[in-house]
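Fold this sequence, please.
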Amino acid sequence: MTVLALDFETANERRDSACAVGLAWIADGRVVRRESHLIRPPEMRFAPGNIRVHGILPANVADAPDFATAMAPYLGDLSRGLILAHNASFDIGVLRAGLARAGLPVPDLAYLCTVQVARRVFPAPEGCGLGKVARRLGIRFEHHDAGEDAYACAEIALAAMRERDAADVHALAAALGLPITRAAGGPPRRALGAISGRAMAAFPAEPAALRFTMLGSTGNRYTVALEERPGGPQLRCTCTAGRYGVRCRHVKALEVGDITHLISDNASDVVLLARMLGAKMRVAGAA
């Protein structure tokens, strides 16, 4: 089975705003191929915060291919293979949202999050963000360049395989007790009514069932829960800012699928959270 690492950079807070993609293929215990491309997002709206992270400007992607064109050569490997990503719920979410926005079928996907791998094999008090793990392992790369990030993700998986003497990524996942996450394909869900009514009925979990434990900057643990509100489901955090009704950094991270500081073992629920919040946004936009 093909194994490849995937990384996206986005222009703004929307999952369907990919502006760069990086991929790195693993075979025979090493990275055997690397690709990276700029992507012209459907809307040329670049958030200042995103630009500060990756440095990509609208002018850089003005002549770049759209999502469908950029991803076409790789969809076979992505749909048939095993995808690695550091904070996988984000990158898988971008892939699915980009395909849906382009009007393309979303294939079944199988993926493994290397954040979860690193927490089990290379834990450290400072956390398991991509740059931090790479630095501990001596992996040299240019952070927030999609191609470089995909390469670093692949090298982290390879280092974990060597550390645990695993023959391949599947054996590594089994040894760590990490199930391969499988996301069913198909057309995107459409919300038909108020988010608290028919739209919420489309999801297999109640909002109150979604709770996440986040690690604060000083080592404190906070609970972020999805609560039903008059305007639809909202995330609330138990940190000081959250108790005053502020959208704190823990909430903002989960909203964009960032699980770097997630310490509860439910990263797959972040995918469901994105679908719920996405349905809320679609309903609001149709109102």
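Strands lie at 3-10, 18-27, 30-38, 82-85, 109-113, 181-183, 211-215, 221-229, 232-237. The longest strand covers residues 18-27.
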